[in-house]
Structures
1.
Amino acid sequence: DAGITQSPRHKVTETGTPVTLRCHQTENHRYMYWYRQDPGHGLRLIHYSYGVKDTDKGEVSDGYSVSRSKTEDFLLTLESATSSQTSVYFCAISEGAGMSYEQYFGPGTRLTVT
Amino acid sequence: KQEVTQIPAALSVPEGENLVLNCSFTDSAIYNLQWFRQDPGKGLTSLLLIQSSQREQTSGRLNASLDKSSGRSTLYIAASQPGDSATYLCAVADRGSTLGRLYFGRGTQLTVWP
């Protein structure tokens, strides 16, 4: 299994509070991604990173920010959590981008916003 | 925008059957297609990756085919076992989008009963 950990694994928080989720990898892969998984929508890309300090938005980025100060860590921050951000969040990594590169996923973080 | 559809949404079969899961996508300009397995409450496990220049890939009892021109992929599972019960997701890496980002189908929930 690819060395990807996510923390916390479960979190319950209140509306309006900031939340930070962490993804940590031991594979030294260049690309890192944050997805959310919701019933009826499947997995959707929130943000991604193509190197230290290099990040960009995915299709559902509103209300989220990210940071990557080290190759191994990719942080996802909910600036002010809302109930619509209740979801399961997955981090993924990839050595490269293109034809032959697989993405490997972490175990997920289940976030509940009350 | 790339759209990925998986049929059927759910499938229940007795142990030992050979079965086929279907995946279709709307834009044939892809880098690759990945099949994943997801167990309840768990992350995604990569099963097979087919590059856009390939027609099929095999791993053990799994065989995945790709017909890029018609926008279709099938995952064939031979001699199914109860341990194969899980949700199977297909995802395409779209050439026209953020490098490496995946578009996911909503999955086929497979139950194999003894």
2.
Amino acid sequence: AQTVTQSQPEMSVQEAETVTLSCTYDTSESDYYLFWYKQPPSRQMILVIRQEAYKQQNATENRFSVNFQKAAKSFSLKISDSQLGDAAMYFCATRNAGNNRKLIWGLGTSLAVNP
Amino acid sequence: GAVVSQHPSWVICKSGTSVKIECRSLDFQATTMFWYRQFPKQSLMLMATSNEGSKATYEQGVEKDKFLINHASLTLSTLTVTSAHPEDSSFYICSARDFTGAAHEQYFGPGTRLTVT
């Protein structure tokens, strides 16, 4: 069975600083996706970044980047130049490739951004 | 990105009544939609996978007779909480999968807060 572990229930960062959120996962599949989702206080789930497992290059979206270590089954999220609007719950998730595959979620990390 | 709407955004109902929540994909067709439940400060719990034109697949422990799911069209899925009780109070989120892209992206609705009194 697939599992996703986020070992940091809460994190904090100073505005403009960099923070890294940890995520490890377990899967026996060879073709899968990894995701980081952001859930702000509005509770609207927002996709932050997606990584295809077959791609060696780490995904990047503006100030958000990942460190994907496939052998170690690690998928951390780095937020650079943190902004107040980055304060949210961040969820790591994985999904097998293919139709109707469901997302497997981590428990989330609550990120506070201090001015 | 694609947009998924939910209606209502919040609802209060009396114990014993039923309440229906709608999930719509506004600009794409979604043959597959998912219904989640989320308690405060917790992760999403998948309740069921809804496929257009067929019966939903419920996760273990989810009562299919209590949480009725209907996916009658390619853009609409509904979740009906029947004979609601206070313990059903929660935040319900739907998502819809867009199969047009290579990644089959999953887009989320804004959620529905249900309070049962």
